[in-house]
Amino acid sequence: MSPRRAAGYSAGTGGCPSDGLRWPLEDRDDEGALFGGYWTERHIGQGAYEGLEFLHVNAKSIINTVPAASRMPFRYTINPYRGCSHACTYCFARPTHEYLGLGIGEDFERRIVVKVNAVERARAELFSSRWQGDLIAMGTNTDPYQHAEGKYHLTKGIIGVLAERRNPFSILTKSTLVLRDLALLAEAARFTQVRVNLSVGTIDPDVWRLTEPGTPPPLKRLDAVRRLNEAGVPCGVLIAPVLPGISDSDEQVAAVAEACRHAGAISAHVLALHLRPGVREHYLSWLSAARPGLVGLYAERFRRGAYQSRREQERLAGLVAPSTRTGGAAAAIMVTASTAAGEGKLDQTESVARMEGSAQQRRAGAPAQLALFG
Predict the structure, then answer these.
(1) Residue 94 is part of which domain span?
(2) What is residue 44's predicted lDDT score, i.e. its pLDDT?
(3) Neighbour order of strands in the sheet with 81-82
């Protein structure tokens, strides 16, 4: 069934010139629109998707090229969705909605852009004679397994094309929906490089409900880590972001690391919260209402900009590292902390990229190691 007619949605009306969207709707063809000449439909979520609005667009291309200056170990990404119903208060991708003429707050969480032709474009581009088979990273902007994927199945379709092409790929997600595609991922891992990372910043249920209300419970995510590895799909954990005054106590961070070890994670990477412009204002507005007593702490931690100190990054790494020294499954875990440029100036995407790069080196014969990126 076409995703445009997926069960559980009803088509909305076309937009008007005042809607602020930077692409044309079905009855519009604004010059200079983001998807120039391609159409959009609005679908209002019903049932389990009530409260969400899905904006259908046809993407002109689906494989994005990462700028060489970013120093990533991969050059290409695919993001079938924009916006994310996981509604994490700290999400670094929120400003990408602003580029579309939408808000970084509720719009980002409730108005989800769906690239309905993503699978078709992936097939056309991956099987093109010009494509050289480079690694594709998924989840570098918003979660490819967010709620919308349960109906649109775009991520599943793209993985199917990647597997058919035997093209290496990685996935970063907070969703246990990845287990729906366990057999597909395991089959792909037989023929090409596949890597999954689950993001688990806390296992404290109160913190989880407060800061990531749209995500599956953390312990269920860790169970997904175990099941993926048991099925032959290499899976690690991104312990991120660790939130000052909320999830950064010694006991809290060490508990997450220990849970990763018990889940059999092949790697664990810890990352302190960073607040870039746009996200900073959104997060601090939320904080002033949810935890007003922490406003002073954040003013101090972020007084020099978007990133916390190198010392804080190293403190977190020190809390995680002991979980890798107890033998057994822990022996396979590489723990890293982001301390680039003396200030830990890495976002979640680059953090995972560096972790994956080190994992690739290990598979090529380099010895397992604990590493601090400095």
Answers:
(1) 1-192
(2) 93
(3) 9-11, 40-45, 53-57, 111-115, 81-82
Coil vs helix vs strand at 249: coil
**Which of residues 169, 192, 215 is at a domain's end?**
192
| CA contacts within 13 A on the Cβ side of 9 | 23
Length of the chain: 374
> Token digits for 1?
């069934």
Q: What's the rounded Cα separation, in Å, for the pair 200 and 178? A: 14
Q: How far apart are CA 176 and CA 224, in angstroms?
A: 6
pTM of the model: 0.82
Question: What per-residue confidence (pLDDT) applies to 300?
Answer: 96
73: DSSP letter: S
pLDDT of 35? 53
What is residue 180's DSSP assignment? G
**SS3 label, residue 101:** coil
- Say yes or no: 357 and 223 in one domain: yes
Looking only at Cα atoms, what is the longest distance across the chain? Answer: 62
Query: Mean pLDDT for each 10-residue chunk of the chain (374 residues)?
Result: 37 38 48 50 92 94 86 86 96 91 94 96 97 94 96 98 97 98 98 97 96 96 98 97 98 97 95 95 97 98 95 94 50 38 42 46 31 20
* Together in a domain, 20 and 84: yes
How far is the C-alpha of 289 from the C-alpha of 180, rounded, in Å? 37
The dihedral of CA 168, 157, 137, 233: what is its sign?
Answer: negative
Q: How far apart are the first and last CA of the chain?
A: 50
Q: Which of 149, 173, 192 is at the close of a domain?
A: 192
Query: Which tokens hold the place of 156?
Result: 């599943």
Amino acid at 287: L
340: which 2 tokens? 């680039």
Q: Are strands 235-242 and 194-199 parallel, antiparallel or unpaired?
A: parallel
Q: How many domains does the chain have?
A: 2
Specify whether 63 is located in the same domain as 210.
no
Strand partners, 237: 198, 268
- Residue reference for tokens 């749209």: 214
